[in-house]
Every structure is written in structure tokens, then in C-alpha cells.
Amino acid sequence: MAKKGLKFKSYKYNFDKNERKLVLSFCNQAVKEMSSDSRFAQELSIFNSIIDKLEAPGEEVQLTKKEATRLTFQLKENTKQLKERLDKSSFIKKWFYKSIYNQYQNLLDNHFED
Predict the structure, then answer these.
(1) Would you say residue 3 has pLDDT above 70?
(2) So what's the pLDDT on residue 114?
(3) In the chain, count of helices (H) and strands (E)?
């Protein structure tokens, strides 16, 4: 009986300069928002680890499964919130939110979709 090959997911990411900057600012904002609440200690350590890896020299970023999962979840939630704001906003705010929404959506599509 032949065994099916196991597929392992790689958590190595090659972000371009703008994507790296976007993920870094996203993680910094998440840390800033969660730092006042002790219930988020584990998430804080995850995001601080991601920040350290993004700030390290080199093109490739190696994340752990936990880091990649948490970052993907937060990015998806943020994108969903932005879409809701985009749908309810006036013209000027729509223009602003559309740019951010597109950046997050492209990041998810290019790197974090299963």
C-alpha cells in the first residue's frame, strides 16, 4: 500500500520593500493596541517576534507556524473591518480606505492564502 506524500507548508516569506513596511507597521500597531492588556501576553510575544524577524537584515523572513497563523488571522480580520468601513464611508474616506484595503488584500492574496 503506497503512502500519500505529506505536504509541509513553508513559512518562509519574501516580502518586497513595501510589503515588509506594511506588515511591520501592522505588527507595531497591534503591539501598541495590545500592550495595555495583560490578557494578550502571548499575542504580544508573537507580534514582537515577527517585528524582530522583519527588522533583521535579509530578504527572506522565516516565521513559525504560530506566528504565520496569528498574522494571517489578524490580517484577515483587519481586512474584513476595512471592507465594512469602506462600504459605510463617504467619498473621501472611501478613497483613503480603498487604498489600505487593497494593500492588505494584495498582501493576503500574494503571501497568506492557503
Answers:
(1) no
(2) 61
(3) 4, 2
In tens, the pLDDT along 30-40 reads 999 998 888 88
Phi-psi region of 54 (alpha: psi -120 to 50; beta: other; left: phi over 0): alpha
- Residue with grid cell 483613503, as numbered in its chain: 96
Collapsing DSSP to helix, strand or coil, 96 comes out as: helix
For 91, the grid coordinates are: 467619498
What does the domain layout of the chain look like in residue ranges? 15-112
Q: Is the pLDDT of residue 108 over 90?
A: yes
The SS3 of residue 57 is coil
| Three-state DSSP class for residue 11 | coil
